[in-house]
Design brief:
By secondary structure, the chain is of the alpha+beta class. Helix content is about 50%, strand content about 25%. The protein has a four-stranded antiparallel beta sheet with strand order 1-2-3-4, with helices on one face. A four-stranded mixed beta sheet has the order 7-6-5-8. The radius of gyration is 21 Å and the shape is elongated.
Length: about 170
């Protein structure tokens, strides 16, 4: 096994990255199941009972169908776009991953953390999420890792215990 593996990335987070992260957290677990069942039930009622309902009830069902399929993603995108304009997100982040841990440099400040200090690591469609705590995470989009993604994931598998990583 190769020792002293090191990966360096220059990351510029976009509104799309933040939106994907927000959508993932808004629709995972039981909440995601509820959203799907609620939408399907409203759609089923709307289609099968169209003639039985008056116009206000049809509009209410239409709003229910669109709530989690259009409205919520749209609002989350607006929030992500606003967040992407903040100074903290606009400032690029340089991350270095090694056998010892990770180093993050942003705006002249450098922070280092050992792998033991990493709360958990999760892969969701299109990006790696490195949780330092429940409220603090770093996003590492696939467009940044490129062809090194599998090697980086192997480093993470080697360093982070299975219970603290998902889909890696």
């Amino acid at each position: 096994m190769e020792k002293n593996r090191s990966f360096q990335y220059h990351i510029q987070i976009t509104a799309r990255d933040l939106w994907g992260f927000s959508m993932y957290h808004s629709n995972k677990g039981y909440l995601g199941v509820f959203n799907v069942l609620f939408t399907l039930a409203a759609l089923w009622l709307l289609v099968t009972r169209w003639g039985d309902f008056n116009i206000p009830y049809r509009l209410l069902l239409l709003v229910c169908v669109l709530m989690f399929t259009v409205w919520q993603p749209f609002l989350l995108y607006l929030k992500a776009r606003k967040q992407a304009r903040t100074a903290v997100i606009k400032e690029p982040v340089d991350m270095t991953f090694s056998e010892e841990g990770l180093a993050v440099m942003q705006g002249g400040e450098k922070k280092e953390a050992s792998w033991e200090q990493v709360g958990s690591v999760e892969y969701m469609r299109g990006q790696l999420i490195i949780y330092m705590s429940r409220n603090r995470a770093f996003l590492l989009p696939d467009r940044v890792t490129g062809q090194e993604k599998e090697e980086l994931c192997q480093l993470i598998r080697d360093q982070v215990p299975k219970g603290r990583r998902k889909r890696i």
